[in-house]
Amino acid sequence: MKRDLKPVAFLAKCLADENRLRILLSLKNGEKAVTEIAEELGLSQPLVSHHLKELRRSLLLKIERRGPFIFYEMTDPQILQIIEALDSLATRLLANRTLF
Questions:
Q1: Using 50, 70 and 90 to split pLDDT, how confident is the model at 100?
Q2: Where are any strands of DSSP class E within the chain?
């Protein structure tokens, strides 16, 4: 039976950016506005907005509008477990690497 891995590849492609991973980790304790994320991560607001747009497009974030502000929140906290598992795997693989 052939599995359709396009959805997995779609999410993996979105996660293949260090700034997007940092944004997701910054949201682990709850929602934040763009300015909060930009300040916390030391990134420009336009860059953060771009990455937030991609994370929303990949269905990893949801938004809530309150007055003039937009707050971003993860759609599913399981993404944090996936990031942690990838981090653990990458650390183990790179620790044992002898060639590039």
A1: low
A2: 32-33, 61-66, 69-74
